[in-house]
Structure formats: structure tokens, C-alpha cells
């Protein structure tokens, strides 16, 4: 039996349809407009809720 017939195409297609592609929800940073995760410190400028939380150079390092 060929490898491609272990599961029918419909069976594979239905399974894959259930797997949602993990699209990270991103919001623009209010300061530098870089797309960032909501409720997270911006990795680019290190601000959160309008406050400087992490020094800029450290924020860049933490993201790497
Ligand atoms: Zn930012």
C-alpha cells in the first residue's frame, strides 16, 4: 500500500482544517508603532502603558 493512502485526502484535509494557524495577535506600540504583543512590554522601546519599564538597550537585548 502506498504511503499516500494511509489516510484519505479528505481525512487529512479535515484534520488540517481543525488546526488553527497560530497567528500572534499584535497591536501597534503607542510609542514606536512597532507591532507588539498586547499586554506586554514593547521589545523595541521598552515601554508599557506609556511608562518606560525597561531601558531601551536592555529591551532590545531581552527580545533576542
Ligand atoms: Zn515601542
Write structural notes for this entry.
This protein has a domain at 22-64. The protein is built from 2 helices and 4 strands, in the order H-E-E-E-E-H. The protein has helices at residues 9-18, 56-63; strands at 27-28, 35-36, 47-48, 51-52. It has a two-stranded antiparallel sheet. The longest helix is centred in the first third of the chain and has 10 residues, at 9-18. The N and C termini lie far apart (47 Å). The model has no long low-confidence stretch (mean pLDDT 84). Zinc ion (ZN) is lined by residues 29, 31-32, 34, 42, 44-45, 47.
Biggest β-sheet strands, sense, barrel: 2 strands, antiparallel
Distinct small molecules:
zinc ion
Sheet with most strands: strand arrangement: 1-2
Q: Strand portion, in percent? A: 5-15%
Give the integer mean of the pLDDT values: 84
Structural class: alpha+beta
Order of helices and strands: HEEEEH
Q: What is the radius of gyration computed over CA atoms, rounded to a whole number of angstroms? A: 21 Å
Poorly predicted tracts of residues: none
Distance between the termini: 47 Å
The count of β-strands is: 4
Number of helices: 2
Principal-axis shape equals rod-shaped
Helix content: 25-40%
